[in-house]
Design a protein that fits this description.
globular; mainly alpha; single chain
Length: 88
């Protein structure tokens, strides 16, 4: 029986895992790239918080074609896609 090579990376090997900060930076960038999403709206901020806690929904969001991402956010996340009152 062949043994595993020590050069094969393992999922638990920290060299190959992203830090929480890196994963959240990717999340913020991906949400920020959504066409038509107002970056100071409650929908924007609620989306970031929601996806940070729900990896399955985050995966669905990442996998969707760009043209459906805003609709997914509007259907899934509470909050409106308009300037927040604090932005005036």
């Amino acid at each position: 029986m062949a043994s595993k090579s020590s050069s094969v990376p393992h999922a638990s090997d920290h060299k190959f895992q992203k830090s929480t900060e890196d994963r959240m930076a990717i999340l913020v960038n991906r949400v920020g790239e959504v066409t038509g999403l107002v970056h100071t709206s409650p929908l924007y901020w609620n989306s970031i918080e929601f996806f940070a806690k729900d990896e399955v929904s985050q995966g669905i969001f990442y996998a969707l074609p760009d043209k459906y991402k805003l609709k997914y956010l509007e259907r899934t996340i509470k909050g409106y896609n308009e300037l927040d009152d604090d932005d005036y």
